[in-house]
Amino acid sequence: KSHTDPIYRYDTFKILIATDIHLGYLEKDAIRGNDTFVTFDEIMKQAVQNEVDFVLLGGDLFHDNKPSRKTMHCCMEVMRKYCMGDRPIIFEILSDQAVNFSHSKFPWVNYLDSNLNISIPVFSVHGNHDDPTGADGLCAIDLLSCAGLINHFGRSRSVEKLEISPVLLQKGNTRIALYGIGSIPDERLYRMFINNQVTMLRPREDEDGWFNLFVIHQNRSKHGATNYIPEQFLDDFLDLVVWGHEHECKIAPVRNEQQLFYVTQPGSSVITSLSPGEAVKKHIGLLRVKGKKMNLQKIPLQTIRQFFIQDVTLSEHPDLFSPEQPNVMLKVMDFCQEKVEEMLEEAERQRLGNSLTPEKPLIRLRVDYSGGFEVFNTMRFSQKFVDRVANPKDILHFIRHREAKDNIKEGMDFEAILSHPTSEVLQLRVEDLVKEYFQKAEKNVQLSLLTEQGMGKAVQEFVDKEEKDAIEELIKYQLEKTQRYLRERRVEATEEKIDEEVKGGAFKEDLAIIRAKAHRDRSDSVRDDDLNLSDEPADIAVESDEASTSAPTIRGRGRGSRGTSRRGRGIYINIHKHI
User: What are the φ/ψ torsions at residue 548 (nearest 5 degrees)?
Assistant: First the structure.
């Protein structure tokens, strides 16, 4: 295409935004196995059709920490199909790429590599599903980065402090400072913010003239005292925050009135749990940025499998049945069947005219049987819909509000946990089960040398990420450290004295800190000079995407002709410290 075509907006960045794609989720399922691959193809096709400058992913590109060969092959196939070609890239990178991509063996953006012909660059942080693990700290996204398909940014070097250096991009008169944090355990990142150990670097050159875009993959909703990241922790000079990890689609930017930035939550592009948040219509975003102004266009995804969820409370229908009636279970079963049929009819109506929508929908009926009702055989019920729904085994979910007189059992009831529907069991977090186990365990089986958090993390890595040595590493390290601690304290070698010192627990650490100390790269020292606090950011306004009258010089796209050096122009940076 000619560089003078009106499709080129020389001062306007066009960015496709998506998060939580979860490639490979249920890939062995006969019905839903290809859902993630089909939708990923649709997302990248939208990038080409909308002629975006680059794609920005907010983490969890993969569902499994170690994706299967099929999943990795499908991902690389789609990226090669849509991201390579001769289409010119008309924005430049100004920051020091050796800093932005310091963890990579090829520390520069892929479109500046003379061996590659990239038409649409992809920038991504890692999520909690595809985060770095093992002695070398590698993740699946690093494989794509090494292959030249993704620009992986937002890696942290330390578990004790965090320094975020932005990727500085310029297109015409528009400049974007792209910040990112790959997934970090929420409790640890929360602690870093509280202890003022999160540092954000800002361009010294006209720092108020940049559009500050931040990508984060953490809990946004509060799941505990410190198991989330409050929005007010983030710096107030930011303009737009792209929040990954949360699956409910809330893509329309919402203004944080305290920090004066906007937050968009694109949500997942696949349904991974049968919960109300996943039933919200799925979208990706087309972000246009011109100067300090932005416009975010919602793009509905057409290949998403339909999902309908409904709640019913049996005790609210005394006119239809009561626990004392004969054959009440048959009446309840007929009632539930009627509700499922209603959802299937609605799914059929909505699917008319859209050939891209999968034929079989996901259906979930949550039945509250409190008040003396009994559950019936869900497998027999599911057989009626086996050819019409995508999740016949998980259609019904019986719940009952616990009455005050119920006795609470001591210890973990693993049989009760495993009796839940498969989809719910899959959502359980291993570290939470470990923590609950020790909370309910008797005093004689409590941990002394290890922490619940550290043990939970080790078991989680052993189970979810197939790190076979995770538990052994934790125990070996903690044992050696305890022995060294006792020797330094010159503790008397009696069981009573040793127990007394051990119970203090001052030397306990979690698994991540142990591994970080063993394999951490040499961290750059934080510069304490030139501390500057930004002024209150300008409001973000909505502006139409209008073409500029003058065009910039276009960088050559032929092989070997790259025009811009890999290290960029070395824009000076000063420090904005979170306070």
Answer: -85, 155
For residue 466, how many other CB atoms are within 10 A of its CB?
13
Q: Which domains does the chain have, with CATH numbers?
A: 6-300 (3.60.21.10), 307-399 (3.30.110.110)
Q: Which residues contact 510 (CB under 8 A, 6 or more apart)?
A: 451, 453, 454, 457
What lies within 8 Å, CB to CB, of 569 at 6+ separation is 94
pLDDT in tens, 5-47: 444 468 999 999 999 999 999 999 999 999 999 999 999 999 9
CB 178 within 8 A of CB 213: yes
Q: Exposed (0-12), middle (13-18) or buried (19+): which is 335, by Cβ within 10 Å? A: middle
DSSP collapsed to 3 states, 256-315: CCCCCCEEEECCCCCCCCCCHHHHCCCEEEEEEEECCEEEEEEEECCCCCCEEEEEEEHH
pLDDT in tens, 62-106: 999 999 999 999 999 999 999 999 999 999 999 999 999 999 999
Sheet strands (E) in 166-230: 167-171, 174-181, 198-203, 211-217
What pTM value is reported for the model? 0.73
First CA to last CA distance, the chain: 49
Please report where in the chains the tokens 């849509």 appear, as a residue.
82
Q: How far is CA 201 from the centre of its chain?
A: 23
Residue 129 known to be catalytic: yes
Residue of 22, 63, 126, 129 marked active site: 129
Rounded Cα distance, 110 and 41, in Å: 21
The residues that bridge with 326 in the sheet, in sequence order, are none
Distance in angstroms (rounded) separating the CA atoms of residues 263 and 345: 36
